[in-house]
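Q: Structure tokens for this one, please.
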Amino acid sequence: MVREWVDQLEILKHSNIKGFLSHCGWNSVLESVASGVPLAVWPMHADQPFNSKFLVDELKIAVRVHTSDRTIRGSVRSEEISKVVRMLMVGEEGVEAAKRMAQLSASAKEAMIEGGPSWKSLKEMISQLGLK
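A: Here is the predicted structure, written as tokens:
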């Protein structure tokens, strides 16, 4: 069976999913964090290169897929995908990315619970707008 659309978040939440190859659009990044799944990032355009740099170099929750010519528009060889998947699944960088992603995911979930920082900020904004 082939489907035109699948719920990416539901797939990412499955317990057997241990990594996510993504072009690094912000919605996919947020879904990955919400699911606690580290990424292999392959940015192509728009905000994706900036997002991927942030995830790899700052948050360290992702590993980078390199194009053959090291440009955004370049092609990627199958050997590179294989190398990155191995790195993400069993390499030291991937193991560390998974640990950091688990911590970030837990923090994000904690921030969103009732009474958490996000909840308090939203209530404060609503109050300042005079809506409640």
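A few notes: DSSP finds six helices and three strands in the chain. Strands lie at 20-22, 39-41, 62-64.
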